[in-house]
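SAMPLE LOG
Freezer: B-3
Tube label: C17
Construct: single chain, 137 aa
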Amino acid sequence: MEFIVDASIIFSFFKSQSFTRNFIKHAYVSGVRLYAPDFLLDELFSLKKKVCIYSGIEEEEFLTSCILLYSLIDVVPKSEYNKFMPRALKVLPGHPKDAAYFALSLKQGVPIWSNEKRFKQQSKIVVFSTHELKKLF
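STRUCTURE (predicted):
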C-alpha cells in the first residue's frame, strides 16, 4: 500500500507518542510506501519553532525526528509531478499550494493521507484521514 502524506500528517509525526508517528514507523517496516512533495521540507523547517512548541520538543529532538522522518518517507521533487499540476488544480480549485499533493497523487496513482476536510470535497482522488487509517490497520 502507498500514500501521499500532507503537512498536517508530517507535523503530527513530531509528537513522540502520536498514532501518526507509530503508524509511519510501522508502515515502513510493513512495506507501506509514503511520499511527500519536496516543498514540504522547506515548510517544515520554516515552521520549526511552531512544530517544537506544538509537539513539546526541543530543537535537537526536532532535528533527530527529521532525520528519522526523511528515512521513512520518499520525498519527490517538483520536476517529477509538475506536469500533473494543471489537472490537480482542477481537482482542488482555489488551493494552489495543496495542489501539489493532488499532482503527486495523480503521478503515483495512490491515495492521499490527510486530515484536511476540504480534500474530501472532491471525488477524483481517494483521501484517507488518520481516523480511517486506524480502522484499516
